[in-house]
Amino acid sequence: MSEGVEWALHTCLNLTWIEDGRPVPAAVLADYFKLPPAYLNKQLQALARSGIVSSVSGPRGGFQLARDPRKITVLDVVVAIEGPEDAFQCAQILRDAPDGEPGIDYRETCVISQVMRKAELLWRAELAARTLADVKATVESRFPGTPNETRQGLRSRRA
Amino acid sequence: MSEGVEWALHTCLNLTWIEDGRPVPAAVLADYFKLPPAYLNKQLQALARSGIVSSVSGPRGGFQLARDPRKITVLDVVVAIEGPEDAFQCAQILRDAPDGEPGIDYRETCVISQVMRKAELLWRAELAARTLADVKATVESRFPGTPNETRQGLRSRRA
DNA sequence: GTCATTCTACTCGGATAACGTGTGTCCGAGTGTCGTCGG
DNA sequence: CCGACGACACTCGGACACACGTTATCCGAGTAGAATGAC
What we know:
Two copies of one chain form a homodimer. By secondary structure, the first copy, chain A, is mainly α. Chain A has a domain at 4-83 and 131-158: Arc Repressor Mutant, subunit A (Orthogonal Bundle). Chain A contains eight helices and two strands, in the order αααββααααα. Chain A has helices spanning 4-16, 26-32, 37-49, 74-82, 106-109, 111-128, 132-142, 146-158, and strands spanning 53-56, 62-65. Chain A binds a DNA duplex through helix 3.
């Protein structure tokens, strides 16, 4: 799985702690984790295309969450970066088997494909059940200092 | 996910229908699905290293299942091809955050890492609960002709 | 006829290339802000 | 003093290189079996 997923999740989580409506530049978000600014920018663009964050150009511009953290699931972020396709892609090799028929959609018929798909469904369901608000709340209950630390850390960087 | 996983799963499933103890050459297994023989051979080597199949060299050689299909899970095959690492690799970027401490293992502490790991755990558990024998039985109940067709298809190819 | 021996052909196994996707970087388009100038 | 205008600086957005992992291929080591010849 792409490393950008981790970056995107942590960055979105950081954005949940920004309460003034001001957007945060990609360079600031990147510097917080010592990440390559231009590349994080690229990931943020993907999040923007998926409607998870909204971007504003120009001075005082940057990124902010596009909607309530309770309406953003972890799966949303993963899909925005990784794409909507399943990890296991059934290439339907049964079609090339001796008794394979070209008309059949083996992605539905093939038992192996079904097993893999059910497993991925569980994975997706678990990630879809966790919202950014859930994660935020869990972090705050375990590490009460994090919200202020994050706010301070970002504020000092955007001067 | 690597395409070799699909090849390996279907090939192992085909091997469950071989009942005489004779091994089947990689070239025969590959031709059954019109796959590149040398490349399937490579995947079979990975399965052999993991102890899922056993290989015998020379004439009349080939591959055969190394143990009872009831003792081979779908996850075993996936891990043999893809490797044991999780798809989501926590790079511990929290260490580079302003208040990150190098001594902490954030793979355990980080909430995001925990969420991702739990989801993958469900995925793995589902695949670990399905054995090759289960898959074989399901296929046989839905398509009773498959065992004989597969045996015939492979027999005609190994002459 | 039987056995040992040699030869052959077959199969795996790892070393070696080609391709594609993810990783990383750069510069241009657009925009808000600040300073300046005129009224 | 106030407002409009212009230049500037900042930010995103997409286009452009690089690297690594997957995909694919080939040839050599080893081995079982068949053929051959001697006894």
